[in-house]
Design goal:
Layout: E1 2-3, E2 10-17, E3 20-27, E4 38-45, E5 48-53, E6 65-70, E7 78-84, E8 101-105, E9 108-113, H1 116-119, E10 122-129, E11 132-139, E12 153-157, E13 160-165, E14 177-183, E15 189-195, E16 213-217, E17 220-225, E18 238-244, E19 250-257, E20 268-275, E21 278-283, E22 289-294, E23 299-301, E24 314-319, E25 325-330, E26 338-343, E27 346-350, E28 355-358, E29 363-365, E30 377-380, E31 392-400, E32 409-418
Antiparallel strand pairs: 1-2, 2-3, 4-5, 5-6, 6-7, 8-9, 9-10, 10-11, 12-13, 13-14, 14-15, 16-17, 17-18, 18-19, 20-21, 21-22, 23-32, 24-25, 25-30, 26-29, 26-31, 27-28, 31-32
Length: 420
């Protein structure tokens, strides 16, 4: 966790023992000065910790710097490399804000310098070999514009880098984009695709700020657009999910739009992360909060009608990278009785207002699963009877609903999942 407001900056390292988190180390390198902003960007992968200090003057004002720490076993974190703002030719980029965003994956570190040039922005790449860390590449938007702020957000996973430019203004608005780069067999980085919001939630003509936050894990990219709005309610921000096909092409999968009556409640792209199939999106509201979204697995079908909450109930199946499987139902009425259903076959029996979309052999899976105050219910499938690895099972959520016209109950959509 970084703490840097208007001061030199300091980073606190926490470790978990059981359910308890404890500060085990405070990091603050010598030589920092007022407003250096050490801790503005923080990223961790295993035993590599990267910290950005975008306000460091080296030698000009706010050029920025990147600090790389490593640890081994139970030893404390030690500073192993500092990269001041010198490009590959040795020239200093004035007021570039290097370290405004940082990310790390294995032996690759990326850092955004969103104010480089006329605020077109750059992304710097650092790689580790047997001799240590070195600055190896600078990534740029091949069609830059002033105040694009390319590199305001960065993410890296293996040989893929994502860089957001929330200020991109091709249509005269700060609608934003994100650029995807891949490292080829020769170690060179190539731009492979540019992605943007074009699904009607603000779209390409809006000042959505798409790209203010980015994250990547495996074949999934998520992008924050803090000023995006949905079909209902005021602008509260959105998180977009893109999936990579077997052919290597990224396509828009889903959009999660925040709708809230709280005028301070919104998604902040700076707090975006993706770990083990779960998206964490920070909010600048007070008190500070975070929204948690789950990356869905399986294939949804049988769309339901709205229930008494005003929304259609949505069932998501989540299979994490380590093989855990969860069911998560949302937008059902709050604090109502419910249960998850499973079947080896799909079918459709029409009720009112929704349909039962499971076939023969249906059973209740797990205990009763009532919704909480938020209208959500979650079930961990670990150890559930009747579930066999490699078999496709069809799931649906049943719940009591005063708005239903048949039997006083309602249903979510259904989802087909190939069990891990």
């Amino acid at each position: 966790m970084g703490l840097q407001r208007r001061k030199k900056g300091k980073v606190f390292v926490y470790e978990r023992a059981g359910a308890q988190w404890t500060v085990v180390q405070e990091l603050q390198p010598s030589g920092l000065r007022w407003n250096d902003g050490f801790g503005f960007g923080v990223a961790l992968d295993g035993e590599v910790l990267v910290i950005g200090a975008s306000g460091v003057d080296s030698p000009g004002e706010d050029n920025g710097a990147v600090f790389i720490y490593e640890k081994s076993g139970s030893n404390p974190w030690g500073l192993v490399s500092v990269f001041p703002n010198n490009d590959l030719s040795g020239a200093v980029q004035p007021t570039a804000l290097l370290g405004r965003s940082v990310a790390v994956s294995g032996a690759t570190v990326v850092a955004g310098a969103p104010a480089a040039g006329a605020a077109e922005g750059e992304v710097w790449v650092f790689e580790r070999d047997v001799a240590g860390w070195e600055h190896t590449a600078i990534l740029v938007d091949p069609a830059p514009g002033p105040a694009d702020h390319f590199g305001k957000s960065v993410a890296v996973y293996g040989d893929t880098v994502v860089a957001g430019e929330g200020g991109q203004t091709a249509t005269g608005f700060a609608q934003g984009t994100a650029l995807i780069f891949e490292r080829d067999a020769g170690g060179n980085w190539q731009l492979v695709q540019e992605i943007e919001a074009s699904d009607g939630f603000g779209g390409v003509s809006s000042a959505d700020g798409f790209g203010e936050g980015v994250a990547i894990e495996g074949d999934i990219i998520v992008v924050a657009a803090p000023a995006a709005h949905g079909a209902v309610g005021p602008s509260k921000g959105a998180v977009y999910q893109f999936d990579r096909s077997a052919a290597g092409t990224w396509s828009h999968h889903e959009t999660r739009v925040m709708v809230s009556s709280d005028p301070t409640d919104s998604i902040n792209g700076e707090g975006l992360d993706l770990r083990d199939g779960v998206v964490f999106a920070g909010s600048p509201s007070y008190p500070r909060t975070a929204y948690v979204f789950e990356i869905e697995s399986g294939v949804a079908y049988c769309e339901p009608a709205a229930n008494s909450s005003g929304w259609p109930a949505h069932l998501a199946a989540v299979v994490t990278l380590d093989g855990e499987a969860l069911l998560s139902a949302h937008h059902a009425p709050s604090q109502t009785a419910g249960v998850f259903l499973a079947s080896p076959a799909r079918d459709e029996t029409v009720f009112q207002p929704s349909s039962l979309c499971l076939g023969a052999g249906m059973w209740w899976i797990g205990p009763m699963a009532p919704t909480g105050r938020s209208g959500a219910a979650i079930l961990d499938l670990a150890g559930s009877p009747g579930l066999v690895s490699g078999v496709t099972i069809y799931f649906q959520y049943w719940f009591r609903d005063t708005a239903a016209t048949t039997g006083g109950f309602n249903l979510s959509n259904a989802v087909a999942v190939a069990l891990p």
